[in-house]
Amino acid sequence: MNNKFRRSALGRVLHFLLDVVELYLPMAAFVMLFLLFVLNVFFRYVLNAPLTWPYELITLSFVWTAIFAATYVRRLGAHVEFTLVYDSLSPKRQRFSRIFANAAVLITFVIAIPASLSWVLFMNFKATANLKIPFSIGYFPVVPFLILVAGHSLYDLIIDIRGFLRGDDTTNAENDDQLDEKDIIV
Q: What are the boundaries of each domain within the chain?
């Protein structure tokens, strides 16, 4: 998001909410994962009294950390990319490939949202062995992941389409003009 939008009250609130979901929640899950891992190692190897319940929370924390952190990486555009072909394209063709890729991700993820939500709700009948945590809680991050990645793809898609319509030949969506507050539909 551009700086003008971030300075507005709505922009600050939306940016903070995105940070909570994409940055602070995975951080908290990772801290929990790490502390439980240390606790589990301590009980197993120092006290020779292994615990079974931390493993369940470690696994769920890992799922939450990985999925929610992936949305943050997508927002930054810092995910791993294989750009051998992309880098050899002209700026105009790079823009078209970004438009195609973002549109494909957006369409695929929007189509996947209802089925994923249904699956997560269906998994409520199963629970972990020791703590009886419903699997729907463990798999819950899949739905916000789909929504957030689709949203980030839509945002990048709009930027690239606007750049194309202006005739701008920048090669990177982040170097292009960002959306203003009036462009965001709430």
A: 3-183
